[in-house]
Amino acid sequence: MINRTALTVFSQQFDDLLLIVSESNRRVTVDPIDRLFENYLNVFTKSYIVSACSILEAFIQDVLFSYVTVMEDRIIKSNIPRNIIMWSHGETKKTSYRFESYKTGIEKSNITDEVSANFFKTIKIFEKIGIDLEGNANFAKYADFIGSTVDKRNRIVHHNDNASDISLTDVINIIEKFKEYAEAIFAVVEKSPHLSAL
Fold first, then answer.
1. How would you label 70-83 residue by residue, b for 16+ Cβ within 10 Å and e otherwise?
2. Whether the Cβ atoms of residue 55 and residue 14 lie closer than 8 Å to each other
């Protein structure tokens, strides 16, 4: 069974960000308007979008690592000779033999280097661990939304793009959709047939 802590922790982080964005939105819609928020609305909007994407990436990373950790524990407990696994992958030189149990050797840094909030990159890294996100309709329905939001974040970060086309209400919607999307990812991972075999 995969630990639900990651979902709970990151759901709370999204909720905390929602509170901040909602309060910011209140300050620019009430009379008198908070001049700090009015004058720097674009700065706040950009930072909220970047923060939401950062939380999403951290969530994806944690769920991946939790799953890999469970699988690694199973592999180690199976006590499979390393050489038989490596032989099947073409490693047949006697100098490469090691008389020990097989371990994947996948570490958190391997995962961190490949994690992205990008929709298609997320599909690819989950494929590497044997999880088919793309085949799940509830996950797939977020493709356009996640794609356009992450593209916007990338333009903000890499090209100092303006966020004047996005309101704080839009940012609230982004965060709520990110929460749903995170839950969709977690649901697919949690239902992995490899986990149910435990």
1. bbbeeeeeeeeebb
2. yes
pLDDT of 6 reads 84
Higher pLDDT, 94 or 173: 173
* β-bridge mates for residue 81, sequence order: 101
pLDDT of residue 85: 85
Q: What is the pTM of this model?
A: 0.91
Tokens 């004047």 sit at which residue? 164
C-alpha–C-alpha distance, residues 183 and 8, integer Å: 10
Q: Token match 């949690």: residue? A: 190
Alpha helices in the chain (DSSP H): 5-29, 35-39, 41-78, 82-88, 108-112, 119-128, 137-140, 143-159, 168-190, 193-196
Judge whether 122 and 60 are in contact, CB under 8 Å: yes
The closest alpha carbon to 131, from 197, 187, 62, belongs to 187
Q: Tell me the pLDDT band of 198, cut-offs 50, 70 and 90.
A: low
